[in-house]
Amino acid sequence: MQLAVPFALIALVTVVDILAPPEVHLGPFLVAAPAVTASFAGPRMTGFVGLVAVLAQVVVAVVRTSLTDLNHSFQVTALIMISVFVTLFAHLREVHEKELIQLRSVAETAQQVVLRPLRERMGPLRVASVYLAAAAEAQIGGDLYAAARTATGTRLIIGDVRGKGLEAVGDAALALGAFRASAHQEADLPGLVTYLEGAVSPDLDDPEDRGEGFITAAVLDIPDREPVLHLVSCGHPPPLVLRGGRAVPLVVDRPAPPLGLAGLVESAFAAQSFDFAVGDVLLLYTDGVLEARDSSGAFFLLEERAAARSGADPRALLEGLCADLLAHAADYTLGDDAAMVAIERLP
């Protein structure tokens, strides 16, 4: 259907140019045909349309005067040059699209390896997760989440690596690997966070690296047989518990520094317990959700929107919040990656 447009344009310009008065020349409009084709077709089709346009210009020259007429000679020459140029453009665009496809494939593979999807059921918990990349071509950035089953419950982590690009992806992979390796081994939650801190801390022999990278994180332990959850917050936005039409932020009394910075200050990791009963839904998120702005610069009101969707199951909750978030963001574009995890305690 798209190819009909340039050929129809060539036919129309050719007929009108032949029938036009001697002082009117419409040949230059033929350059639009290969130019339009280059925007959606490959170099071969673009070159073919350019050739058809040149032949049409030759027909017009022969019918109206002669091919050796100076005006028509210049028109044919200019059309050949422009057709060659747009064909080259179509070739470069095709190469770029192939590179993007390869990058998407690599990114999707990296996402499957680094940011594994969470299981929908983990013991008495029903879980859903979502990752929204700020860049259209990116599949994974510095946001992270993971969950692990233990003998007594479920442990989770959600975090946000400072910075962007491949370095942030590498730091996220490091933190997730450390969590998966130690979640089953550390007896208590502070011990687990201490292990994570040691895994992501910068090399002490490289003073230039100290303080340059860190990870805000919330690390949780949800026992199977107790209506509570235990939380260690390392500079991360407080989780929300949805119950009774309200969104209650879980603000700890003693927040710890972000992972990677604990060695720079005197601080011990401490876990704090919160109620988490049957029917409650826990919402974990990264600051990309809070920092989303609309066209006027107003921030996204997560607590308000989450409370409005209280009572939904985790999957429906995240789908609704994603729709709200993208509708709020200017031009449906996020300024930073955003991740959310919703957990419901079942009977």
Brief synopsis:
This protein is of the alpha+beta class. Helix content is 42%, strand content 19%. The longest helix has 45 residues, at 70-114.
Radius of gyration: 30 Å
SS element count, helices:
9
Kindly state the number of beta strands.
Answer: 11
N-end to C-end Cα span: 56 Å
Q: Overall 3D geometry?
A: elongated
Structural class: alpha+beta
**pLDDT < 50 runs, ≥5 residues:** none
Strand content: 15-25%
Q: Main sheet, how many strands, which sense, barrel?
A: 6 strands, antiparallel
Taken in chain order, the helices and strands follow as HHHHEEEEHHEEEEEEHHHE
Helix content: 40-55%
Strand line-up of the largest beta sheet: 1-2-11-10-7-8
Mean pLDDT: 86
What descriptors fit this protein?
347 residues, alpha+beta, 5-stranded antiparallel β-sheet, 9 helices, 11 strands
Walk me through this protein's architecture.
The chain has nine helices and eleven strands. It is α+β, with helices and mostly antiparallel strands. Strands 1-2-11-10-7-8 form a six-stranded antiparallel sheet. A hairpin with a 4-residue loop joins β5 (about 215-225) and β6 (about 230-235). α5 packs antiparallel against α6. The longest helix has about 45 residues, at about 70-115.
